[in-house]
Amino acid sequence: MEWRFSKPLPRENSLSNDTQGSVPLRSEADIVTCRQMVRKLVVQLKFSLVDQTKMITAASELSRNTLVYGGGGEMQWELVTDMLKQGLRLRFKDQGPGIPDMALALKDGWTSGKGMGLGLSGSKRLVHEFELESTVGVGTCVSVTRWK
User: Fold this and answer.
1) Is it the case that residue 33 has pLDDT exceeding 90?
2) Chain-centre distance of CA 147, in angstroms?
3) What pLDDT does residue 102 have?
4) Which of 47, 56, 80, 90 is deepest in the core (most CB within 10 A)?
5) Does the pLDDT at position 7 exceed 50?
6) What is the secondary structure of the chain as a DSSP string?
7) How far apart are CA 1 and CA 104, in angstroms?
8) Please, what are the domains in the chain?
């Protein structure tokens, strides 16, 4: 059997010219795809191994929250610069029930389900910038940025 591709496959370490994109979050498999995309981006940005792990962990937690509590949505990613710094910004958006008490949701140990209650608060500690917007009945958007 012969395989043909319309475009050459990118090499593992090749740099992408894309500066933004998105990943749907509709299934457990999409969470894996999200983590793989974030891993590729932080390697491309030459983050240290510790910083790679922090960003991948935050993405894993937030993508799971998007799927489990928001009923699915998407992760949008963007390579960002600020003066001489480079970074990665991730936005997790859903159209779920929203978060009625955001201060409570950010407390360690609080959970609206069966989780450990570390998703939002833990993710916040893993990144440099964290923004949470939510409207009950409309949905939630969590934006995180980590700088190199």
Assistant:
1) yes
2) 14
3) 86
4) 90
5) no
6) -----SSPPPPTTPPP---EEEEEESSHHHHHHHHHHHHHHHHHTT--HHHHHHHHHHHHHHHHHHHHTTS-EEEEEEEEEETTEEEEEEEEEE-SS--S-HHHHTSTT--SSSS-S-HHHHHHHHSSEEEEEEETTTEEEEEEEEE-
7) 57
8) 21-147 (3.30.565.10)
Contacts 24+ apart (CB under 8 A), 32-37: 34/59, 34/60, 34/63, 34/75, 35/59, 35/60, 35/63, 37/75, 37/77
Burial 63-73 (b: 16+ CB within 10 A, else e): bbbbbbbbeeb
Of the candidates 65, 109, 118, which has an alpha carbon nearest to the alpha carbon of residue 91?
Answer: 65
- Gap between the Cα atoms of 47 and 25, Å rounded: 25
Task: Give the pair of three-digit tokens for residue 76.
Answer: 């949008």
Are the C-beta atoms of 77 and 23 separated by less than 8 Å? yes
- The number of residues in the chain equals 148
**Other C-beta atoms within 10 Å of 46: how many?**
10
Give the global pTM: 0.83
